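Quarterly update from the structural biology core.
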Amino acid sequence: MSVSMVKGQRISLEKPGGSLTMVRMGLGWDAVKKKGFFGSREQEIDLDASVVLFADGQPADVVYFGQLTSKDGSVRHTGDNLTGAGDGDDESIIVDLTRVPVHVTSLVFTVSSFNNQSFDQVANAFCRLVDEQTNAELARYTLTGGGQHTAMIMAKLYRHGDGWKLNAIGEPGQGRTFQDMFPSIAAHA
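Predicted structure, tokenized:
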């Protein structure tokens, strides 16, 4: 059963009978339809999912459209969607929790508009965490409200004892890439 998360909410990722081994953070969105003289038309929105891996508050690695796999191979981006076309997850980042190096304490997921389009132009945006083994959705965070921001810190996956927890952050930001938002991202490490 999926948990519909709200900003600031934290959930445990322990599952009955064992622990999660592989998860997928999916990002989906649509462009707001533009109203014109001859009706409405679709525009293209290039949002980019990224994740920064932290070791005790310090950046250890990053996965994004320019580096699709972490150096150790535990985190993999499935590819860049330049338009938001299609249903479901437009971009995904898969994390093999059994292979994440022990020194990595948290992973912070972000989304940014590569063409600097604001979230006022984005509709139906969400991020969701899926058990990659069963394809069961564990949690969903709907990115609501639009706004003049061009980026968002979505969520943080972090170690808690022997397991993992998820924190829905939902903090708006400015920037075309994760590098532009790095000071804000690091505050959530």
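Residues 3-186 form a domain with the Lipoxygenase-1 fold (CATH 2.60.60.30).
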